[in-house]
Amino acid sequence: MTKAARLAWLVSVAAIAGASGMLAFLLSISTTAQRGFLERHYLWLFWVNVAVATALIIVIGVAGTRLALRVKRGRFGSRLLLKLAGIFAFVGVVPGVLIYTVSYQFVNRSIESLFDQRLASALEAGLALGQDTLDNARSELSARPAVRPSAGKTAHSRRWRWSGCATSCRPAAWHSWRAMGRCC
């Protein structure tokens, strides 16, 4: 291995270790610090991210240039190395593009569905139905006579009768209400 190759490996390892250390530090701060820390330092974090991305692009560009020079000179194994680099690039880029495309479509369509006219009309119809049901229940409650215990019975007693109870009890629950003495 030449001196330049060792230097390139050293710079690459140092960059990856530095970026990993910085990310681990920021992750530990974000979980233990007060809320808003990352929001206050957003601009700084953005430029650190741009710097790391630029460094990685430079490293990939230098490696690609060296590979192209090796292929041009016809060095042994350079075509195999080119195929291997192409396969790794394909395996790294295609899933990322696929995930990005699917995520973009999902977010775009879900946001569009929030403002869809059919959904808005369905929500308005549901709101109107809920308000009508509430108004009907309120009018039924106001039309019912007040519940009063029959003569000689207290409000805490279980055995008192409601007026008009037979029409308001449901058939399935009527027997249990009758057993408790609340229905006629």
Keywords summarizing the entry:
mainly alpha, 184 residues, elongated
Walk me through the structure.
The chain is an all-alpha fold and about 180 residues long. It is about 80% helix and about 0% strand. Among the domains are: about 1-75; about 75-115. The protein has seven helices and no strands. The longest helix has about 35 residues, at about 80-115. It is elongated, with a radius of gyration of 37 Å. It starts with a helix and ends with a helix. The model is unreliable at about 155-165 and about 165-170 (pLDDT under 50).
Structure summarized in a few sentences:
The protein has 184 residues and is mostly helical.
List the helices and strands and how they pair.
Blueprint: H1 3-32, H2 37-40, H3 42-73, H4 78-114, H5 117-143, H6 165-168, H7 171-180
Helix pairs in contact: 1-3, 3-4
Radius of gyration computed on alpha carbons: 37 Å
Mean pLDDT across all residues, rounded?
Answer: 78
Question: Could you estimate the helical fraction of the residues in percent?
Answer: over 70%
Please state the overall shape, judged from the principal axes of the Cα atoms: elongated
Largest sheet: none
Helix count? 7
Poorly predicted segments: 157-164, 166-171
Number of DSSP E strands: 0
What class do helices, strands and sheet pairing give? mainly alpha
Helix-strand pattern, N to C?
HHHHHHH
Spatial separation of the terminal alpha carbons: 100 Å
